[in-house]
Amino acid sequence: TTRPSSDSDSSPTVESVEDNPDGGCHIYRNGYYGSSIAVVEGILEVNIIQMTSIQMTESQAENSLVDFVVTCQGSLPTDVCTVVSDPTCQVSKSVVCDPIVVTDECLLTIRRAFEEPGTYCINITLGDDTSQALASALISVNGGEST
């Protein structure tokens, strides 16, 4: 900017004013930004293919044990959760979650205990870091035998 001098000299005085009022500096960068995206398949499907009651002696008869054979498709799971509910699948009675190691093929056996005879809704959820898949079944436990 140019302004007249206050003294008797008639020559103009020149001041420079920065465009940045806070006194900081601006950095301009030119170039390209690159990123990669990984698409994961996830666990696509879970199936309960077999339910087997475990025969126990009378001294072990406080709980009925049932083995569930489960298969899945897609990526391999790292954990399994089993929710045991009433026959309407509305009221949860117990939830058990365990880490699992599946190496080649998604085929695993899950053993769960039932405290008393009755009909139950079973939800088995297989999960990994990016996905979950669920299978449900109704099971009737009759004091050490299941159908």
Helicity, as a percent range: under 10%
What is the count of helical runs? 0
SS class: mainly beta
Question: Which CATH class of the domain at 43-141?
Answer: Mainly Beta
Report the order of strands and helices.
EEEEEEEEE
Q: Enumerate the strands of the largest sheet in spatial order, edge to edge or round the barrel.
A: 6-5-8-9
Would you tell me the overall average pLDDT? 81
Ends distance: 94 Å
Could you say what the CATH topology of the domain at 43-141 is called? Immunoglobulin-like
- Stretches where pLDDT is under 50 for at least 5 consecutive residues are 14-18
GO cellular component, one term: plasma membrane
Region (Disordered): 1-22
Biased composition (Low complexity): 1-15
GO biological process, one term: cell adhesion
Walkthrough of the structure:
- It is a single chain.
- The chain has 147 residues and is an all-beta fold.
- The protein contains no helices and 9 strands.
- The model is unreliable at 14-18 (pLDDT under 50).
- Helix content is 0%, strand content 48%.
- It has a 4-stranded antiparallel sheet with strand order 6-5-8-9, with no helix packed on it. The protein has a 3-stranded antiparallel sheet with strand order 3-4-7, with no helix packed on it.
- It has strands spanning 2-3, 13-14, 43-54, 64-74, 79-85, 92-99, 107-114, 118-127, 132-141.
- The N and C termini lie far apart (94 Å).
- It has a domain at 43-141: C2 domain (Immunoglobulin-like).
